[in-house]
Each structure stands twice: as structure tokens, then as C-alpha cells.
Amino acid sequence: MNPVLRWGRTLGYALTLPVVLVTLWWVWSADSTSYYAPPLQTILTTFGDVWFSERLRADVLPSVTRLLIGYTGAVVVGVGLGVLLGANRTLRRVTEPVLEFFRAIPPPALIPILFLFAGIGDTAKVIVIISGAVWPVLLNTVEGVRAVDDVLSDTSRSYGVTGLARLRHLVLPAASPQIVAGMRQALSISIILMVISEMFASTNGLGFSVIQFQRSFAIPEMWSGILLLGLLGFVLSLLFQLFERRTLRWYHGLRRSQRGEN
Amino acid sequence: MTQPLLDVAGVQKTYTGSGRTVEAVRDLTFSVGDGELVCIVGPSGAGKTTLLKCIAGLLEPTSGTVTLAGSRVDGPPEAMAVVFQEYGRSLYPWLTVEGNVELPLKQKKLDKARRRELVRDALEAVGLADVHSAYPWQLSGGMQQRVAIARAVAYEPKVLLMDEPFAAVDAQTRADLEDLIRSLWHKLGVTILFVTHDIDESVYLGQRVLVLSSSPTVIMEDLAIDLPDERNQLETRSSPRFAELRGHVYEQIQLAKHRKGDQHQRDELTTGSHRAGQPTVAADPGH
Known about the structure:
The complex is a heterodimer. In chain A, 84% of the residues lie in helices and 0% in strands. By secondary structure, chain A is an all-alpha fold. Chain A has one domain (59-92, 102-254): MetI-like fold, CATH 1.10.3720.10. Chain A is flat and about 75 Å long. The mean pLDDT of chain A is 91. The longest helix of chain B is centred in the C-terminal third of the chain and has 20 residues, at 240-259. Classes of the chains: A mainly alpha, B alpha/beta. Chains A and B meet through helix 7, helix 8 and helix 11 of A and strand 6 and helix 3 of B.
């Protein structure tokens, strides 16, 4: 089949269900008189008024900034510690019980404590995001680093690929499939924690706005905020897929060729 | 024989782990002259890989020394390149063919122009000039092993170590790769130490064949292969002298296998110097 046609067909499959769902919502809510479930048309009109305004800078930007800084922090800390722990068995044995404990604490439960110590500013929210999102990256990196192939490791040594070069050319690429899987989980955790930390205590942000609207009975505005959060998550996950496809092109190709042989 | 380039003296390797010690290599002494092509053949489980890793500086021998060009090997030397059996696991799957060959050269701090030249020449020499931008996993097994050979050649080693490099490819590919090794050896004048479990392969390829015993390993024989230098899969392999040599090595290997599992006899054999009636000639041509 010609590539344009094939692409069009894929897009068609992907769009059918969303279009059907939105249409149903639109039709069913059209004459809604319920105060809490206003017509979709009202919500969408409100969406434009609320978000394409001063709020874009005052609420959306701070949320996205916290999210990105927190997420980046989680990835950097997770990969850094993960490489260290993955390469050192003693260190891993010593830290494992503690890590398992911290990972088992639901991240939102840390919010009250963190806010006590770090205040309720941006720093505290970034810390909340890092403290929750770091775990999947950390644990996946440890596994990935441990699983570096012996033969490839010997090959690297015999060709003088040691020290930092070993990290850059062997360990990180070899662990990248696991690291990226951890980063994918961390992204959704980061979004959740961004919203929750803003709902908890904040003076701006998306989570703050949604709660504010709900408490002041601005129902269509509240719905529009939820919609925006959904869209934000969706766009970020699309961007992530793009990143993953670029970074792990070799891995998916390798997997395909292995499946083809078996 | 020319001046020894690689000298293996009294190498012994014992693995210790969880209350059990395994003596993989007992006592190996031999040397390889500059420009020689030496094959090491032994039954499976004869500690061939252990020996090769000790020579490559990837494993530290429990006792004994490996000397390359006068200096003791205590880590992977720059003048050595290794080709492993598992081509699928020794190439970087995230790098292209070119990237795989080039990475060691970057570690050698060669400038870009020189690297490009070496990569191109090496890929040409193994017949892969046109796949430089492919990924290893897009190639067949034989081609992947050619990439690994190209990487080793581009590294410009004095000694090329090969650990059963063709054990995992089909027979036809294997014959082609054997001839490739002979022709690279002629062309580059590199010293090659080729480990294999395949008797025919060792006789076909080598100038000398070292026959190993079963683990714990000693050298049973150091056999000179007096076949003509120009070898050919058809003629060489069907010549009477080839049959004689392979028959001789085969007998040695059978003896090696037979000895396995008889601890007392084996201890006697290796502790007492060569007893009467034993066909073992643990030659030490370097001295």
C-alpha cells in the first residue's frame, strides 16, 4: 500500500473512537440542565475564555515549569544513583531495604512532611515530584546496568573502552531500554504529583485552579481545567513516544530481527 | 622459529567460589613467534576460553605470566585485539557497522581522517565495504562476525586472538571465513592465535597446532603443520598429509577425553614428568 494511504488509515483508526466519544458527550450533554454536568458546548466556550488569557502565564506556565524541572531532576538523580548502585554490589545490598521502603510510601503521603520542611513554594513542589518520580527511573536503571552483557563488557575492556567512555559508550546505551521504560512511568507520576501538590497548598497552577473553581462553584471552568490537564498529559506522552522512537530505534530493530529469526 | 612475540609461562587458573575450587587450567607454557598463525585445539570444556582470557588480560592467572613483546600482560594490552565466538553479543547493537569499527580507534585517540581510513580499509578487507551504515543486527551471522574481524583488524594489533570465532556460523560461511583469516594473515602479517574445538579447522588454518588436554588443562602436543602455505578448501582438505595430521590430532583429543574424569591417573600424569608409554609431548618450543 502507498505510504500516504497507510498513514491515513492509521490516523483514521486512531481518531475514530475519540471522535465518537466526543460526539456522544456533545449530544447527550446538549440539553443538560444539571448544574454539575453542563453541556460540552458550554465547557468548550469556557475553555477558550479561561485558558487563552492571563491564566496561560499565571497558572499553566508555573505548573509546566514545576513539572519539567521536577521530572528532569527525577531522571538525573535516578539515572545517576542507578548507575552507581547497578555497578556496585555492596552498595546495592546495603541500600536495597531502605530503597524498597521509600519506594513503598505512596508519594502523596510525603507531601505534608515535605511542605513542613520546604515550605509551600515551588521548591517544595519540585521536591515532591522528584521524590515520587525518581523510583521507577532509579530501579530500572539499576536493573539495566546490572544486565550489561558479559561478552560486550569484555569486548569493551579489551578495546580500551574504560572509565567514562565505558559509561558513555557501553553502560548507558545498554541500559537505555530499561531507563526509558522507567522514564515513561516517571512522567505520569510527575504529572499526578504536580497536580496533587498544587491542590494541596498553592497560590497558582493547574491543580490549584481546578480546586479553586470547584470550591467557588465555577463548574464549567472546573471541567475545562480537567480537560486541559488531560490534553497536557496526552501531548507530553506523544512527545515522549517521539523521544523513545528516536532513542531506542536500534533496540526495536534488534528485537524485530530477533523475533524474525525465532 | 622467529623471536617469540607472545610468551605464556606456567599459566595456571583456579576458580574459587562458594566452598568449591575448580582448577580450569593447570600449567600452560608456550610461545608464539612474530607473524605466526597458531591454533589451539582442545575438547570442549578444556578451559580454552579461560586460557584466551588470561592471554588477553581479561582474567588474571592464579599463577604464571603472559608476556607480550617483552612486557608483562596485566590488563588488556593495546597491541592485542580479540574476536569472540558470540558475534551477536560482541558488537554494539546501538552503533552502525562503521561505529562499531571506529569506537576502539576513538579510544586510541586517533584523529578523524586516520580513523576513517582505517575503518574503510578494514571493512574493505573483510568484504563489507557497502554495508558501513547498517546496524549489525540487520546482517547475517557470518557478516556480523566479519564486522567483528574488521574491528579487530582496524585496531592494528600485533596479536589477534580469536576465541572459536566460527563455531556459530553455518558450514559454507565458515569455510569462507577461514579463507578470509588466512588471506588477512598473509596480507597484514599479523600474529594470530586461534582457539577452536574443530580439529579440521585447526589443521587447515594453522602453521602450528597446540593440542590441549581436558580440564585441568595442559598442553599435550605442539604440532607443526607442514602443509603448503597456499591452502585451498578443496585440495588442502583432500590431501593425504591433511588426513594424516587431522588423524593425529584426533587421536590426541581422544586420549585427552579418555583421561578426563580419572582424577588419580590424571594427577599422576601431570605431577610426575611424562611417564613411559604416554604419547604426550608437552613441548615448549620457546626455550
